[in-house]
Amino acid sequence: MDKLVIVALDFADDFECINFLNQFPKNQSLFLKIGLEMFCQYGYPFVKRLRERGYNIFLDLKLHDIPNTVKRTCQMIAKWDVQLLTIHASGGAEMIAAAKEGLSGSNTKLLAVTQLTSLGQVELSNELQVSLPSQDYVTRLAKLAFNNGADGVISSALEVPMIKEATSEEFLCVTPGIRPKSAQVGDQKRVATPSQARKLGSDAIVVGRPITQAKDEYNAYVNIEKEWSK
């Protein structure tokens, strides 16, 4: 997978989303993330509409259920021609393997979410009662995903070097929680700038509000891509 900037479509409705996309040249190659909010509101027809416009799709559904349910869901999604799909690594070995089996025959790559970037060490220890340090916990989940057929993981950029060392340089690390220096951190706790993520070895970055809520959205995207590509 080429080094990518993936735009998270953080919009209130599909009309606003299409207006945003219309700012870009028609031949612009874009990789777009559809999360739970937009998918629950607009469903597969929205995914299909964006694919017909030539965009690559990261379907960020974070599936987490019993293995058979996840497998059957992935079998349906395998027909949709999306490029990336997420599950939760904490669903366990059998669920990860079932998801990969469900996607067999398609070109959809399976990414396992390790630790949400909104969770820090305090939440991990006090709320979830995980005794491991955050980075060790993420690495363990990444190895679980790697050993059970996932193509990569979602993690913060800060954990990428350890994940690559524990798995493989070819194991994809897609990193949200990306904020250019001028942007506010918001509800993210483990963040990095685009250039930091690149240096740490991220294969792709996911950027939402710093682009979609900028005064000049198109230039915000261009500037982040320039910083990422340096």
Provide tags for this entry.
230 residues, alpha/beta, TIM Barrel, eight-stranded parallel barrel, 10 helices, 43% helix, 17% strand
Furnish the topology, listing elements before pairings.
Elements: E1 4-8, H1 14-21, E2 31-34, H2 36-52, E3 56-63, H3 67-77, E4 84-88, H4 93-102, E5 109-113, H5 121-127, H6 134-147, E6 152-154, H7 160-166, E7 172-175, H8 194-200, E8 204-207, H9 209-212, H10 217-229
Parallel strand pairs: 1-2, 1-8, 2-3, 3-4, 4-5, 5-6, 6-7, 7-8
Helix pairs in contact: 3-4, 8-10
What features would you describe in this structure?
InterPro entries: Aldolase_TIM (IPR013785), OMPdecase (IPR014732), OMPdecase_AS (IPR018089), OMPdecase_bac (IPR047596), OMPdeCOase_dom (IPR001754), RibuloseP-bd_barrel (IPR011060). GO terms for molecular function: orotidine-5'-phosphate decarboxylase activity. Belongs to the OMP decarboxylase family. Type 1 subfamily. Helix 3 packs parallel to helix 4 and helix 8 runs parallel beside helix 10 (217-229). This protein starts with a strand and ends with a helix. It is globular, with a radius of gyration of 17 Å. With 230 residues, the chain is α/β, with parallel strands linked by helices. The relative contact order is 0.14. Helices cover 43% and strands 17% of the residues. An 8-stranded parallel β-barrel has the order 1-2-3-4-5-6-7-8, surrounded by 6 helices. The chain has helices at residues 14-21, 36-52, 67-77, 93-102, 121-127, 134-147, 160-166, 194-200, 209-212, 217-229; strands at 4-8, 31-34, 56-63, 84-88, 109-113, 152-154, 172-175, 204-207. The protein contains 10 helices and 8 strands. It has one domain (4-229): Aldolase class I (TIM Barrel), CATH 3.20.20.70. The model has no long low-confidence stretch (mean pLDDT 90).
